[in-house]
Design brief:
Helix content of chain A: 25-40%
Strand order of the largest sheet of chain B: 3-2-1-7-20
Number of helices of chain B: 12
Number of helices of chain A: 9
Largest sheet of chain A: 8 strands, mixed
Structural class of chain A: alpha/beta
Distance between the termini of chain A: 21 Å
Oligomer: heterodimer
Strand content of chain A: 15-25%
Order of helices and strands of chain A: EHEHEHEHEHEEHEEEEEHEEEEHEEEH
Helix content of chain B: 25-40%
Number of strands of chain A: 19
Shape of chain B: globular
Strand content of chain B: 15-25%
Structural class of chain B: alpha/beta
Largest sheet of chain B: 5 strands, parallel
Chain lengths: 383, 439
């Protein structure tokens, strides 16, 4: 079994497959956790998902993460504190009258789907986050929202894989697959070398579309750029993920600021794309919009020095749902890709689902909406 | 948008501004210091016809149709009242220079341990007894300035062996004969004051509680590993260190310029890989003030030409710039950084002063399975994330961690200079201010 891509999704898939008893080799063209995973904010969120398949996967993943981290700890002895699992919940904040209605609609739909939501008034919201603006019009608290540190967690998952006899090789680019006469995958090629395997998992994150083309089974995953700002360390400034609910207002911008803590005490400001958000933009205008959004939520942030801004890549699909499952065109080729800005949160559930499907267990969530040949992906027939 | 924007007010930048203005271009010269001149203390008044923006930092460079938009904030670096503006440039000349490279060793973070340029500017205030250590010709310049200011320099410890290196690779000396004259003056001055210059020697540790009181020095082998039993202790009031220079790449990286071997890649006309962007001076190689000035003159003429000025080839400047490039390459060969410095570092030695990350923490992060790559590493340890934003620590951390050689990795930023969130959040009244009135 070969997993291509050692980001958090690839690592979670490899871990889950090895836990199911398979021998797994993970290949990455660069170092593990170097691309979208390293740029990720670390949110394990249910609060930002509309009811439907993505929310179901997010909830399964949220349940799975603490179990998974416990299992990894048991396997590798200690779990470094750096994995930073924080189950502090999250806030969605409306700061205008116009945002009250849409936030209420989201919380009602989420409640109906079984997500825990607590409505807060401005004063109790500030009990959670004392630096939050006083000018809130509505606040929802989502106790299930959590956070982790993506690079450290990926390293721990790969360590667990190794503990089970699996292997990780960095700096190895997969250049193609070997197929038998029926067209099924029997190996991968890395330049001159051929590595035989029973199945290949495409977990290439932002490059999943590119990789799928390379091996002649294109899926529509394209990298979209997201931008984050990091402030100087401001210890205990913010305790949990706080995002502006304003994007819910369909008449306004479709992306908004999300503010959260990091292990070093720096405050991380990311853009948060709502459904249909265009998050492919770049440049100074985007940085300004992020900064304005952050200062709107936390006025004291105006004085905070920006340490850096960095771009990350979000692997996006046309219907903004990940692709998880076997490719019907190429037996033995599996995809676990296209998680948009939620790969970190969805990784544990994705790994579980992929292993369920591979081993024929009852899947942890309904796999149909994520299947490779769903009409929204407009797959080219045959390979 | 018929304007040349020059970033950096050292010899390269002022020469570029002057050359472009002399050919009729409207020129804005942006410099982060209160006064022009740069580290080399070049001319301090702006050339004729050049608009000088002092205390101004470029924090972003954006491509726009027909050129670039340069985002600048003006005012004291840590002050609350900086103003922002965006300047549109048909041609952009980057001449941001270099900053001194410092290597970590036990005690390098003690008060009283100074960078060579910093010490030279302080003069007599540095202290009574001083050791100057590191590598590169600038050490001699700094040491000579200190003795002239009345400081007692006990020794200059040069970690390399430039004489041997020079004898092995003499080519390039002719190109730098002007620099050699200055060097001879510094050597004469040090000899007059009986300052010994010890080759293949270095300070391995600085000792002291509240500030540096003593240093431990040793002889080095060719790879900069300490020679056994050669350790010697010197009582000092200050330690001055410098390990050459490393280019300030942030603006060039923000503009998307290709980097080769740690420097901005340019052609003979100083054009970078990005159309309309030129680079001059120490961004392209460490060759000293004369070389920087010549490159600036070429870049300024090329920028004016891009604006449509009729420009005759600046033959003299081109020749001097070419010689400067050969001298820079030769200097790099005479003063290599030996790999043995990594052995001077101890578990508790800070490798990123700004974030307080020690070598031990860095080592553990690297040893943790699955961590690698500068970005992943900086997230895992915080090293290279500090206020210097990797300028000081990034390259050292990369070498200590055994990362692939990519000196630009830590310069890869969307924000090229410190800026506050509130400043970023300001409404873009900047667009109105884009057209600065030119006197």
């Amino acid at each position: 079994m070969v997993v291509v891509g050692a980001g958090i999704v690839g690592a979670a898939c490899a871990e889950a497959l090895s836990a199911a008893g398979l021998r797994v080799l993970v290949l990455d063209r660069d170092a593990p956790a170097g691309a979208a995973t390293a740029a990720g904010g670390g949110g394990v969120l249910v609060s930002d998902k509309d009811p439907g398949p993505e929310l179901e996967l997010a909830r399964a993943s949220r349940r799975r993460w603490p179990e998974l981290l416990d299992e990894v700890r048991e396997l590798i002895g200690t779990l470094p504190a750096e994995v930073g699992w924080e189950a502090e919940g999250g806030l969605a904040v409306a700061v205008s009258a116009g945002a009250i209605g849409p936030l209420a609609a989201l919380t009602a739909a989420q409640r109906a789907a079984g997500v825990e939501v607590e409505d807060l008034d401005s004063a109790s919201a500030r009990d959670f986050e004392p630096r939050l603006t006083e000018a809130t019009t509505a606040v929802a608290y989502f106790p299930e929202d959590a956070a982790l540190r993506p690079v450290a967690v990926t390293a721990a998952l790969l360590a667990a894989l190794r503990a089970r006899g699996g292997e990780v090789r960095g700096g190895v680019a997969v250049t193609g697959t070997a197929v038998d006469r029926s067209g099924a995958v029997v190996g991968v090629r890395t330049g001159a070398e051929a590595i035989p395997c029973r199945a290949v998992v495409n977990a290439c994150g932002p490059w999943a579309g590119h990789f799928s083309e390379t091996i002649g089974a294109a899926v529509d995953v394209v990298p979209r750029r997201g931008v984050s700002l990091v402030t100087a360390p401001l210890p205990r400034f913010v305790g949990r993920g706080v995002r502006d609910a304003e994007y819910l207002d369909a008449s306004g911008a479709r992306a908004s600021a999300a503010v959260g803590p990091t292990a070093s005490g720096a405050v991380l400001i990311g853009s948060h794309g709502g459904p249909g958000a265009v998050d492919d933009d770049r440049g100074v205008a985007v940085l300004r919009r992020l900064a304005r959004g952050a200062v709107r939520l936390f006025p004291d942030l105006a004085e905070a020095p920006v340490r850096r801004a960095y771009g990350g890549c979000r692997p996006s699909t046309p219907d903004r749902l990940p692709v998880i499952g076997e490719d019907p065109r190429v037996p033995g080729l599996w995809h676990a890709a296209g998680h948009g800005g939620s790969g970190v949160g969805l990784a544990a559930g994705t790994g579980r689902l992929l292993a369920d499907l591979f081993t024929g267990r009852v899947p942890v969530v309904d796999p149909e909406p994520f299947r490779v040949d769903r009409p929204e992906l407009a797959l080219e027939a045959g390979a | 948008m018929k304007r040349v924007v020059v970033v950096g007010g050292g010899p390269a930048g002022t020469a570029a501004a002057e050359a472009a203005a002399a050919r009729g271009a409207a020129v804005v010269l942006v410099d982060d210091a209160p006064r022009l001149g740069g580290r080399w203390r070049g001319r301090s008044t702006p050339p004729r016809g050049v608009e000088h923006l002092a205390e101004s930092e470029v924090w972003a460079v954006e491509p726009v149709p027909g050129g670039h938009r340069v985002h600048v904030r003006t005012g004291p670096a840590d002050g609350p009242d900086r103003t922002g503006r965006a300047i549109e440039a048909r041609a952009l000349v980057l001449a941001t220079g270099a900053h001194e490279r410092t290597l970590p060793f036990p005690g390098w973070d003690l008060p009283g341990v100074l960078a060579a340029a910093e010490a030279r500017d302080l003069g007599a205030a540095v202290g009574g007894r001083v050791i100057v250590a590191g590598t590169g010709p600038f050490l001699l310049s700094a040491a000579a300035s200190l003795v002239e200011a009345g400081v007692r320099v006990r020794a200059v410890l040069e970690a390399g062996d430039p004489v041997a290196e020079f004898l092995a690779r003499p080519a390039g000396m002719a190109a730098g004969w002007r620099g050699a004259g200055a060097l001879a003056r510094h050597l004469a001055s040090l000899a007059r004051h009986d300052v010994p210059i010890c080759r293949r020697s270095a300070v391995l540790a600085a000792r002291g509680g509240d500030r540096v009181r003593a240093v431990l020095a040793a002889r080095l082998d060719e790879d900069w590993n300490p020679v056994p039993h050669s350790l010697r202790r010197f009582e000092v009031d200050a330690l001055v260190v410098g390990f050459g220079f490393t280019p300030r790449l942030e603006a060039a990286v923000a503009a998307g310029c290709a980097i080769e071997d740690g420097f901005v890649a340019v052609n003979a006309a100083q054009a970078t890989s990005v159309a309309g962007v030129f680079a001059a001076g120490e961004l392209t190689g460490i060759g000293g003030a004369a070389a920087a000035e010549a490159e600036g003159a070429v870049a300024g003429a090329a920028a004016a030409k891009l604006l449509g000025a009729r420009v005759r080839a600046p033959v003299g400047a081109l020749r001097r710039a070419g010689a400067g490039r050969r001298f820079a390459a030769a200097l790099a060969g005479w003063y290599p950084i030996g790999p043995g410095w990594r052995g001077w570092v101890r578990e508790r030695t800070p490798v990123c002063r700004c974030e307080g990350v020690s070598y031990g923490e860095l080592r553990r992060a690297v040893a943790a399975p699955g961590v690698g790559g500068a970005r992943a590493l900086e997230l895992a340890t915080g090293a290279g994330l500090g206020w210097c934003r990797g300028r000081i620590c990034g390259r050292n951390v990369a070498e200590l961690a055994g990362l692939p050689e990519d000196p630009a990795a830590f310069a890869r930023q969307d924000v090229a200079a410190p800026v506050r969130l509130g400043e970023l959040a300001e409404e873009a009244g900047e667009v109105r201010a884009a057209e600065i009135p030119l006197s």
